[in-house]
Amino acid sequence: MNRMGNPQSGSSQYESLEEVLQESVSQAATIERLLAFVYLKRLKKLGFKSDAGDFSRFQTRIKATVATGRVEIPVSSRRFRAAGITKVALTKHLERKVTKAEMAAFERIIAKATEGTVHAAMQSMSEAYTRTIKSSSVEYLRQRRQEQDRFKRDVEREWRKPLAHLQLQLDVARDLGNAVIEKLETSGDKSREPSKFDAVLTSFARACQIVDEIITLLASGFADGAEARWRSLYEIQVVLTLLAQGDELLSERFLHHHDIDLLNEAKSMLAVAGKNASKTITRRHKELVEVRNELTSRFGTAFDAPYGWASELLGHRASRFSDLEIRAGSASFNPHYKAASANIHAAARGSLTRIGSPPGFDGRLAGASNYGLAGPANKTAAVLVLASISLAQYSGSTEIMSQAMTMQSLARKVAILADAVADRLDGRPRRKRKLRVRKSQPIR
Question: Which are the contacts of 191, defined by CB distance < 8 A and separation ≥ 6?
């Protein structure tokens, strides 16, 4: 489990930069610099023309005399007379206190003077830090790989059984998909309803791919990442259920809605590019607008809603995913879906509640952890069962349906094994749950 931070990039870097800044400012913002700046600004207003050496001479003389309480100005009377400056005017202007405006002007000069120094220091420190990283990168990466290997072995030791059963469930699901494809191609249903075949099987294939991603994330100790991918898996399962239960026209609408999504993306690109938009983007946007007009003319004006492909099915403009959940009979998963949604967004809920953080952990999780894997694993197994049953129902095959039903026992096994690991890691007594699986199950 990783706490946030890296010893090689500690606070000493910033402390050194602060020292550079303090030294630069202290050298630039001296009392003699301030008075030299103010006096020369005031003399300029009186008509005095300074030369290149005046500022340096003013600083030297002021520094030598300021401690006596009497500041001397290193300018001859001849230069004052040439500028038409009387002694009375000179005394009046130089004896005034430094104003806020003069101080602000001086601070701006100091800021500009130190900016280059600080930038140069940052560049130098960055280059030195880069050289340090490069010189130790081979050894550092070797140690890092060793740490990762040890951690993965720990995860493997704790979570091997539930993850192995989840992998087995995925393999059964893929076999199920291949069986459905073979059955529908042989029976001719694919050619009779080509849109439904493409929409349902493509969605199911995508679901299987995401489950594979989730297993990889779980095996690497990323519970929060697995939860985020489960959110996508659940959305696909809801849509898959509706498509499997629907007719050919619903799937056709679903596939054509791809162009509506492309149009929305083109609109965003055009809005960002503005006048600098390329001819390709402009032309593509125009083409998609024409496609959208044809689709809304064919399927109705509600077709361009976020879930417009389902507007006719729902009987209203489909703008909310929750409407699809209810129609698919998956509303019981909505609280889990909302929690998973909070996990992927930048709100405090997602930042403060990390699934991979164990109870009592006072750090900020910045990497992998062997905690929290049970929840995403259990939900993935359950949703994969629902997706498989929907696919089997679409196939109309009793044999394929019985194959899908056997996945329920695997999902229960995943839940029991994953919960047992979670309880052991949390120090809770093991739950007593009945397990109904065939004795011939290849993974124990």
Answer: none
User: In which domain, by residue range, is 156 found?
Assistant: 147-426
SS3 track for the chain: CCECCCHHHCCHHHHHHHHHHHHHHHHHCCHHHHHHHHHHHHHHHCCCCCCCCHHHHHHHHHHHHHHHCCCCCCCCHHHHHHCCCCHHHHHHHHCCCCCHHHHHHHHHHHHHHHHHHHHHHHHHHHHHHHHHHHHHHHHHHHHHHHHHHHHHHHHHHHHHHHHHHHHHHHHHHHHHHHHHHHHHHHHCHHHHCHHHHHHHHHHHHHHHHHHHHHHHHHHCCCHHHHHHHHHHHHHHHHHHHHHHHCCHHHHHHHHHHHHHHHHHHHHHHHHHHHHHCCHHHHHHHHHHHHHHHHHHHHHCHHHHCCCHHHHHHHCCCCCCHHHHHHHHCCHHHHHHHHHHHHHHCCCHHHHHCCCCCCCCCCCCECCCCCCCCHHHHHHHHHHHHHHHHHHHHHHCCHHHHHHHHCHHHHHHHHHHHHHHHHHHHHCCCCCCCCCCCCCCCCCC
Measured between alpha carbons, how far is 164 from 68 in angstroms, rounded to an integer? 86
Same domain membership, residue 285 and residue 255: yes
In the chain, the amino acid numbered 375 is G
- Of the candidates 128, 161, 192, which is a domain's last residue? 128
pLDDT at 204 exceeding the cut of 90? yes
Taking the model in full, what pTM does it have?
Answer: 0.72
Q: Does the residue 141 lie in any domain?
A: no
Confidence of residue 226 (pLDDT cuts 50, 70, 90): very high
Please determine, for residue 8, whether its predicted confidence score (pLDDT) is greater than 50: no
